[in-house]
Design brief:
By secondary structure, the protein is of the alpha/beta class. It has ten helices and 15 strands. It is globular and about 60 Å long. The model has no long low-confidence stretch (mean pLDDT 95).
Length: 338
């Protein structure tokens, strides 16, 4: 089969196309013929942190959807031909998070990813693809969509009538926007691009804020919510947005902490958090159980992921470059097979 592995050259890391034997599923595993995979901002961070060659040979990417191709001994919950997607973590199936799950994330420091024509996955770490979605669309769900769902819905309890600040128009942001609209919440979307804000409006965004022309966007949020602030904030920026998020959150509100787009290591003044009895909720994707619950909601509401572009398997570096440029609106997908 064909696959990509990370390769360091001259202080830079790139995905290199190669070949390997088709893997056989172990007991309890399923082999999947991968139809599509998708990129996340995490994949750029992995390249940036692997210039020392520590991840040479690692198969990248965490998100894939495809067709069940073979069953390992003891697997009865799937059959050949089923349309499935792999959960972000091989090990976090349900229940509370445990740090031991971190090394089981696909495409990370300890576990090979999904950018191959065939992969093997524990049967319990798979979910059925919603019937109305193509496998290209389903490949966008495992990381970005589950992150938004776990954070906003499962942990922060977003519901009808709530207000939510959504930072940006990337994958997690747009899934958060779609979930908010479907739940009857009021989304306030931030972007540096008026064009992207208008695209967000077409998806149901109620209030649009350009943070370049309105750098003190927290004041705009306060004004748009009659002085109350937002009940929920999807915090995707990190160091450069955190202080404003704290100023924009309503009394009793919830900041869903996900992003590091402007760098990690924020040192905000948390006094206001205590004053207004608000919460910070830390999120690292979610469990297979979260993925299954989200897919049921996606099917019920007939939601369709926003895809910016689909790249052939032979030009994966172009997909990385497009992601790095930051001009996309929605997800970037790689077509692996028919």
């Amino acid at each position: 089969m064909k696959l990509y592995r990370l390769q360091s050259e001259g202080g830079r890391v790139r995905p290199a196309l190669g070949e390997a034997p088709i893997p056989e599923p172990a007991p309890g595993e399923v082999r999947i013929r991968v139809v599509a995979a998708s990129l996340n901002y995490r994949d750029l961070l992995i390249l940036a942190n692997a210039a020392d060659g520590s991840l040479d040979g690692r198969i990248p990417l965490s998100d894939a959807a495809g067709i069940v191709d073979a069953l390992g001994d003891g697997v009865t919950c799937w059959k050949e031909g089923d349309r499935v997607a792999a959960s972000f973590f091989r090990g976090w199936i349900s229940g509370p998070f445990d740090p031991a799950y971190l090394p089981t994330s696909f495409g990370g420091r300890s576990t090979d990813g999904v950018l191959a024509e065939f992969i093997t996955v524990p049967a319990v770490a798979l979910v059925a693809v919603p019937h109305h979605l193509s496998l290209v669309e389903a490949a966008t769900l495992p990381c970005a969509a589950v992150t938004a769902w776990h954070g906003l819905v499962e942990r922060a309890g977003l519901k009808n009538g709530d207000t939510v600040v959504i930072q940006g128009t990337g994958g997690v942001a747009l899934f958060g926007l779609q979930f908010a609209v479907a739940l009857g919440a009021r989304p306030l979307v931030l972007s540096s691009s008026d064009e992207k804000l208008e695209q967000a409006r077409a998806l149901g965004a109620v209030d649009l804020i350009n943070y370049l022309t309105t750098p003190d966007w927290h004041e705009a949020v306060i004004a748009l919510t009659d002085g109350k602030g937002a009940s929920h904030i999807l915090e995707l920026g990190g160091r450069e947005t955190y202080t404003r998020s704290l100023k924009a959150v309503a009394a009793g509100g919830k900041i869903v902490q996900i992003g590091v787009l402007t760098g990690a290591g924020p040192s905000p003044d948390l006094e206001r958090l205590q004053t207004v009895n608000a919460d910070i909720i830390g999120i690292t994707v979610g469990a297979t159980a979260h993925f299954s619950a989200m897919n049921a909601f996606v099917a019920e509401k007939n939601l369709v992921p926003v895809i910016d572009g689909v790249f052939p398997f032979e030009v994966v570096p172009d997909a990385y470059a497009h992601l790095r440029a930051g001009a996309h609106f929605g997800k970037l997908v790689i077509s692996v097979s028919d």
